[in-house]
What does this fold into?
Amino acid sequence: MIHYPYENFYAMLYGVAKENPRKNVIFIDNERYSYQRFLENVDRTARALEVIGVGRGDKIALICPNSVEFVQSIFAISKLGAISVPINTMLKNEEYRYILGDCGAKAVITAFKLAQEVRGLRDDVASIEHTIWIDKAPFEDAKHLLLGEMVADHVHHHSPSPAKLDDTAVIFYTSGTTGHPKGAMISNRNLFSNLVAAQERFDLSPKDRFIVYLPMFHSFTFAIMVILPFFMRASFVIIPSILPFSNIVRQTLLKRVTIFMGVPDIYNALIRARLPWYFLWFNSVRCFISGGSALSEDTLTRFRSLFKRAVMLEGYGLSECSPAVAVNLLEKQKTLSVGLPLYGYEVKIVNDEMEELPCGEAGELIVRGECVMQGYLNNPTATAETIQNGWLRTGDIAKIDEEGYIYIVDRIKDLIISKGINIYPRQIEEHLMLLPHIKLAAVIGVSDPHSGEVPIAFVELEEGYETTTPAFIKAQLKEHLALFKIPKTITVVESLPKTATGKVLKRVLKQGNY
It folds into this structure.
């Protein structure tokens, strides 16, 4: 069993801040936060949350953009022994209602620019007692609070966190094939195992500086780009928005970033960006990390020819594994491989009966180790299906070569990954078939040079609705689904290909000749 020096995030922050009080940990725009200043903000935030009734085991949802407030809230929640629930900021109101109701969130921390989609959540979800705004509130009453005012009202003081190593620290919601998101419960131990493993694989030191422009609600960004720098006594740069992309390039250079994490779409953008010669000569990046979906061989080749002084490491993970599972080595990378399992983790390739397959043969990838989640919140059936005898079934088809390098071949589930974000066709199909003019729908993923994959839909129309257009269907969907889930194309067909039992044959649709 791996030894961990801390029981929870807050204990880690407190220990590191006492050792390095003056060192800067966070850079954002023209502002910087030392470890000591950040710790004081966290202590004030924790006290402010405590005063409104937040305590051990309470779930606090964060529908929040990249910001210092997001990070200090995470640590304040840990100090109280409560549980963070970071949620995708691109969802719609009804999607938020389901997640908040499922986890029983006691409070929501959010921002004014998201006011339209978070409207009415406190009234619709019985468990929510307060909405906390990190900038300005659209309403003025006792239930809508400004974080800045709350924090200003309290002095900072240290008190140990009650959170233990095996307590749930965070819940990442990941959509399932049923269409409803499932909450993966991740303990402090789960996440610390990832931090220890990442430190070893990337050969990290306190001198490293990360850049955080991908959404902090994403499990990989949360663990590896936000929490890991604190564990390493390192620092990171927060970019509030991915646009303009030129700002990411500029901040990478000016803030001397050494660790850069992205998804294939970002690396394709860097290749196309016509970067100035001084960026290529003077940037400090020593390691680029790619995840979310597979990099093409062409992208890898072009990227390595452009950045000759840095290493590109492709990896693999999933929220249920806290989240990183495998990454290539600094000293040896294999093209199209996601690398070797991280320190302390085991992987196998198995058949449908969970029997291990020979080297080089494709089957389901399963994972065992202290990264494996505690289970799905309120869903023991799904937990039992996913974790069997301590092994987590990933639902991904893979193969392992003679040196132990993992290659992801395909996905068992119908998962679509677009710009590193998971999209589940079943959810889109269910919304399509809620529309009165649609009889049957099928959604598949197709390759896209900019996004990796995008969803496309095929629909059968109900009798009497033959004049319904794809544009009208898209407009209806936009009222219920996040924009990244809207199918790129919707094709109206007379009849979808089906089995004898009426199940749609998606493989026929994927062949592209239907």
Notes: The two ends are 53 Å apart (CA to CA). The chain has 17 helices and 27 strands. The CA atoms of residues 261 and 289 lie 5 Å apart.
